[in-house]
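Blackboard transcription, Thursday session:
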Amino acid sequence: MNASDLQSLLFYALAILTALCAVGVVVTQNIVRAAAWLLFALGGTAGVFFMLGADFVGATQLIVYVGGTLVLVVFGVMLTAQGPFVNLRTSAAEWAVSLVVGLLLYAVLAVATLGGTWTKQERTPEQQVAMTDSADSNNSILIGHAFMGQKIGPNATGYLLPFEIVSVHLLVVLIGAAYLARAKRRRGVANVDR
Amino acid sequence: MTDLLSSLLALLLSQETADLLAPILAAVVKGSIIIVFMLLSAIFFVWLERKVSGRIQDRLGPTRVGGKFGWLQTLADGVKLLLKEDTMPANADSMLFRIAAYATLAGPFLAYVALPFGDGWVAQNLNVAVFFMLAVLSTEIFGIIFAGYGSGSKWALFGGMREAAQMVSYEVPMAICVLVPVIVSGTMNLNNMGRFQSGFLWNWYLFHDPFTFAAFWVYFTCATASCKRAPFDLAEAESELVAGFHTEYSGFRWLIFFMAEYGSMFAVSAIATLMFLGGWHTGVVPGELSEYLGWPGNLINVGVLIFKGWMLVFVMMWVRWTLPRLRIDQVMETCLRYLLPMSCVLLVGVAFWQVAMPAGVLMYLKYAVSAVCVVLVLFTMVKVWTTRTPLPFGGVQELWGRAGVPGGIEAVKK
Amino acid sequence: MLIADIGLPPVGLNHYLLLGALLFVCGVLCMATKRNGIGVLMGVELVLNGANVNFVALASYNPAFQLEGQIFALFVIVLAAAEAAVALAIVLNFYNNHATVDVDTAEELKG
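(Written on the board underneath:)
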């Protein structure tokens, strides 16, 4: 057993945890518990990102996905969690069908994954130069430069335009969501009281 | 640390086993240090909170029980909580109710992993440390939401919902304020950021320019709110919601909630210290102590950092026992209408400042700002010490006199 | 040695891709079986996470695309946040108008 075995051990622990939690999201009938399982699945995914040396993506996953999106989802659950909706059941026949479909889908994906040959590629000298320092210690700086339109590496493109589009998109979503979810005085209240 | 453990283990076992076990053991040791630190500081903060609230609200705090300054009272409290029956309401969601407390503690615990206590003394020196700390601190909210929902109680649910709304809102200006010193220093690595502020007082980012100075106060306000401390403690709000999200908790799990709260208070204070208040530097010694003295110097650094963090926690307590609680709509309005625009202006402002200001101004402004601040602080302290204030009407005068407050009972007689 | 040889296969790209595939399948099943509108949304999040695992894993195993994979993952995370906000607004609207979150009852536009 050596250092890479230790890494394998950590990976298996993390992967099994993440996978079990993801299965938990599907299996549980209680929507709030599904949110709890989803929390751990997303946290486990963030751990996988950290293991892969993508610190910035992992931290973003935690702050945006777990701290932002998932809170929003839980908020939605709470606002609509009234007795019967917490446990909306799925019929047994649907379960059987979805189990078969799920297993088949996973089999297809697994065969496709294992059938391919994935070789770890070494860095070309010019890439090495472009990455200046060891890439994982300067990841966030490189990502920042890429978002500002700097081209890093021979086959790279800048990402300024997508970055701007995403920014505008977020603004549109902000306004749109606020408009959609605004309090509608008369009809909304009457319906909820029912 | 890993190398040290590896060589120690090699005395007992074969070299390759030692090499393998050392990282695991190092992780366990670091985790234990963090847990012990959280526990000890929680005990200290419980004691401090009692004394501070007692002094501010004229009720002395424990003095007659538990030894000198009532320190045993805190230990007795802990023993009481451990021995208490651990109850769960009949209609609680048992899974959520159980995991909520631990989910709350996980956030602050993980935050300490990236927190440098001294020069290079950090469990995991992350490149995105400050971002990581904010990220894991923001996951604390789930424990509170799950506690609120899982308790099956209206009070708890209200507390959880308020907390969710409040945390999500205050995270935004807090993160934007954190970006201000990140722009100035050009790194998100807290260890490097601390190192950049070595030397005298004026190297602290608090005095770097007007924007960082303002950002500190905005950050500290948001941090107070994100730790759900008064005047933003809407999630607990004893007078409205009994005890908010932890109404149904007792015993050990309740204790965990409190450890988490004090843990995150110190964590946000330590972030503020590292980013604005010079980190582990005393501010009166030139250069880096650990470079002169080696590890004893670094030990002093750790003491300085913890002291600064404790002072900020003390300010949080001071604010808690001084200001009344806001209403929930006022809390949200404070964030969205005032703090958020302020932080955005600070972010844009500091970016322009760094680019547009001539280098001379950038170099010398910090001396002026720090000098003005030091003079103001000294003036205020002299004023406070030399002004004789009579006791408040209806105060427990005899007790104040007996407690040996300077000028206590005599001040009343005159 | 006691723990000298556990015999764990070394972790390669395959393992990460299989994890990503599992998250994807779980997400698809979640979307298909959940009747609660917000449950469907959770399925979407799982699918996007599976894709993200693949992006980051491939990025770290092929240095030519070291940054590309991470940047795509970042875009996915941000767009997922936007998508969740809009979807939740729609669910809340649906709840306001129909007093239920069961997606099976949203069939007014059925031909």
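Lecturer's comment: The helical segments of chain A are 3-27, 31-51, 55-80, 92-115, 125-130, 139-147, 160-180, 185-193.
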